[in-house]
Amino acid sequence: MRVIGGEFRSRPLKSVPGLDVRPTPDRLREALFNVLAPRIAGVIFADLYAGTGAVGIEALSRGAARAIFVEQNRAAVNVLRQNLKSLELEARAQVLQGRATALLGGMRADIVFLDPPYDLQGEYETVLTKLGERPPALVIVQHDVRLKLAPAYGSLRQTRVLRQGDNCLSFYAQ
Length: 174
Hints:
By secondary structure, the chain is of the alpha/beta class. It has a single domain (6-15, 25-173), classed as 3-Layer(aba) Sandwich (Rossmann fold), CATH 3.40.50.150. Helix content is 27%, strand content 26%. It has an eight-stranded mixed sheet. Strand 7 and strand 8 form a beta hairpin.
């Protein structure tokens, strides 16, 4: 796994062994940041269910001012911290260990990315409903093509769906 573009382009990222953490594929990350390119500079980017931090690190590499990483898995948090340290990004990052649903309340971000692990599929509905109550400017949800998300959650409305293989990126905004 590596950083796709920006300041840290081609720099390697460590991964967590096993199937508990499933990193966003390189091609999907590239497609995501091609869409986000005009609006990523200077934002606060939240990477919920961050795993190794590849998506949030990509945001920092491409110009986000700060990134908030939320991850419950202790092994993934350790690898995430190693990845941030190897790129000297600790000062621009906040790592929160715990459940995303519990940590959303006090978090302020411009763009939120979420991709719960396979065993937490119910989190999509819960997190999107909470985000819809006090929505950020943009929410991006990575999910399986077979998972059908609602067209709206509170004030958030689905504005775009990008399909790539078995994955989808659903974009929500006010």
